[in-house]
Specification:
With 646 residues, the chain is an all-beta fold. The protein has 1 helix and 41 strands.
């Protein structure tokens, strides 16, 4: 499953040690004057400097010493040396050179560029590192820990020599250099194994003969510990207080008694495994693939899912509203048999049910209910043996009538009480290539106790005017009472009571024109209490309609429209003029809000699409455009006529 991923990212942190330190430099502000830069090769002013590669790429968020062949360009040879000041290490018994680095090699192998580290033993320069391959990365440096005890002397120095071999090579970053006499060597080779939802086994290689250590396991990104860790003389060390699906980092240091502590080794990063979930559980698919879920690109209800790790269920908006927050699969031809797989659940207690929002729309629509093809199916299946066999709980097929607003699929799990189960949702196109082309949606998957008062489902809004709307739903059970909440869009789940009603549909009135609303509904089951709120479903009231024609007094009867045009067609039927192509200085048939931000009507007063006739002019356009209606017969206008438009 998605979360069971061990992140192998061990970096020995280069903290300053408390033992005797002879050399220590982080190059944060400059190359100190006590260090010597030897600018060799074919150019000048192209050697070691304090900085970041490309102006912002670094090892630890600060400057490093850097030599950059890539920035220097082709055609100029670089042979650049950075030499430390002299320091006296007489008497050191465990002398180490530590530094962070990113050495970016040109091609790997025996090519021309190299990065060499040398130490001066009082007589000669001794090579202790010769690199001809990549080491480290930006933000994840390679940590070098080199034993240089054999070269200890009163006039010791170290130097870093970069040679690009007269090729257009890459770069070398060096940081946090220190030479110290270590009385307590740090552990190495940290491992994390046997990872479960709440435990892990941590091991390491001792730095020396020490038998005691401190271990810190903390949220990833916390950084090097500033205090003590958990004391232990166990290697490996088991921690059993972790949280499922959580990323951690591990640091370990040696405790050498009278010789003090070593530097911290780490971090080693890992993520705990999924736990078996105990209901109530809700997954709203804010992120896809969710933690502890998986996908499969093949397999049927007999074979179970195969091709784990990916499939044709993708992220989209529920019922094609928006682009995120739900799973969607397109069922059209005769190839797909794809799964989405839940984590495991412990159904001890209960009784429980599984439910989710489900919808079927014709391809790429928001308002046309779809019907599945002749052998297309979407199934909710359950497994009680860790995915070996599967049993169908719910099946949607060509006989299923799913409303355009979607429905809530509910499966009673009473028969599985006390078992560990997993669910799969399988979308299949079957073997018949039907003409039906549908988008299928799944959202808000829940496993929960069977409610004593079931929620209504399939909320819909119809007959919207400037001040009223009809709201309907499907009852959750046998209840005859509900509460309805109509509020400004974006308000969120109601915190108080709604409007009590026994009417379904419920006619809302006294609304405000041109206003976005959201609707929630819940069941009132009397002695069994209230259900959870269901919603929101959103709608926007229409504009206030224009007044009837004024100034026309009929001798008998009432006034009426002889001619109307709502500009829903492009071009409008029968109209002539310079054109309706929307070019600069011409007329355009534009959708609601389709032009410059905030211009044009937001929606149509008559409930139409909001398209309108618009003159398009940008800058200093001086074109004159005409839009001429078809001839209008006014012979029936016995008492006069009036022109009005909105």
């Amino acid at each position: 499953m998605k979360n069971i991923t061990l992140i192998i990212a061990l970096i020995f942190t280069c903290s300053w040690v408390s033992a005797q330190t002879y050399l220590q430099e982080d190059f944060n502000t400059e190359i100190p004057a006590t260090w010597t830069i030897t600018d060799g090769g074919g150019g000048t002013n192209d050697s070691w400097a304090s900085g970041q590669q490309g102006g912002g790429n670094n090892l630890d968020g600060t400057n490093s010493a850097i030599v950059d062949s890539d920035s220097n360009g082709n055609g100029t040879e670089l042979i650049e040396t950075l030499t430390s000041p002299i320091f006296d290490t007489t008497g050191a018994v465990a002398l180490f050179l530590d530094f962070d680095q990113y050495y970016n090699d040109l091609a790997g192998g025996a090519d021309s560029d190299s990065g060499v580290v040398e130490v001066f033993d009082g007589t000669n320069w001794i090579e202790v590192l010769n690199q001809d391959a990549d080491a480290g990365l930006f933000g994840a440096p390679d940590q070098q820990h080199i034993d240089i005890t054999a070269y200890s002397n009163a006039n010791m120095q170290i130097r870093f020599v970069y040679n690009d071999g007269n090729a257009w090579a890459w770069y070398w970053l060096v940081d946090n250099v220190q030479v110290y006499n270590s009385t307590c060597n740090f552990p190495s080779d940290i491992t994390v194994t046997n990872i479960t939802a709440n435990s892990a086994v941590i091991g390491w290689t001792a730095g020396g003969a020490e038998m005691d250590w401190e271990v810190v396991v903390q949220p990833i990104g916390s950084g090097e510990p500033t205090g003590a860790g958990t004391m232990t003389n166990n290697n490996p060390y088991t921690i059993s207080t972790l949280t499922a699906i959580t990323e951690y980092e591990v640091y370990v240091r040696s405790d050498c008694g009278a010789d003090g502590f070593s530097i911290w080794a780490g971090p080693m990063n890992f993520e705990t495994a999924c736990d078996v979930f105990v209901p109530d559980y809700l997954e709203s698919f804010t992120t896809i693939v969710p933690d502890c879920w998986d996908e499969a690109g093949d397999g049927d209800a007999i074979t179970g899912p195969t091709g784990l790790g990916a499939g044709d269920w993708n992220q989209d908006g529920f019922l094609n509203n928006g682009a995120t927050g739900a799973y969607k699969i397109n069922l059209w031809q005769a190839a797909k048999s794809d799964w989405i797989l839940t984590p495991q659940f412990d159904l001890t207690g209960g009784p429980f049910q599984a439910d989710f929002d489900f919808g079927v729309l014709t391809f790429n629509t928001t308002d046309t209910a779809g019907t599945l093809g002749s052998d297309d199916t979407v199934q909710l299946l359950i497994s009680t043996d860790n995915g070996t066999t599967w049993t169908s709980l719910i099946t949607f097929d060509s006989a299923s009538n799913v409303p355009v607003t979607g429905t809530q699929a509910v499966a009673d799990l009473t028969a599985y009480s006390g078992q560990i189960v997993q669910f799969g949702i399988l979308g299949s196109e079957g073997t018949v290539d039907d003409p039906e082309d549908n988008d299928v949606f799944v959202d808000n998957f829940r496993v929960r106790a069977i409610p004593t008062c079931p929620e209504p489902s399939s909320l819909s809004v119809a007959n919207v005017t400037d001040n009223a709307a009809d709201i309907s739903w499907i009852a959750g059970g046998a209840e005859m009472d509900w509460e309805v909440a109509i509020q400004a869009a974006g308000t969120g789940t109601p915190t108080g009571a709604g409007i009590a009603t026994q009417n379904n549909p419920y006619s809302a009135s006294a609304l405000t024109a041109s206003t976005a609303y959201e609707v929630y509904v819940r069941s009132d089951c009397g002695a069994n209490g209230l259900s959870s709120w269901v919603g929101p479903i959103n709608f926007t009231t229409l504009n206030v309609p224009p007044p009837a024609p004024l100034g026309v007094t009929c001798a008998s009867g009432v006034s009426s429209f002889i001619f109307t045009e709502n500009f829903d067609d492009n071009p409008p039927s029968g109209w002539t003029g310079t054109g309706f192509d929307g070019s600069n200085g011409n007329w355009d048939i534009a959708a609601a809000g389709a032009n410059s931000f905030g211009t044009g009507p937001a929606n149509a007063y008559d409930g139409g699409s909001g398209t309108h006739l618009e003159y398009e002019a940008t800058g200093d356009a001086t074109d004159i455009a005409s839009a001429i209606s078809p001839a209008i017969d006014l012979t029936a206008a016995l008492d006069g006529a009036e022109l009005s438009f909105f």
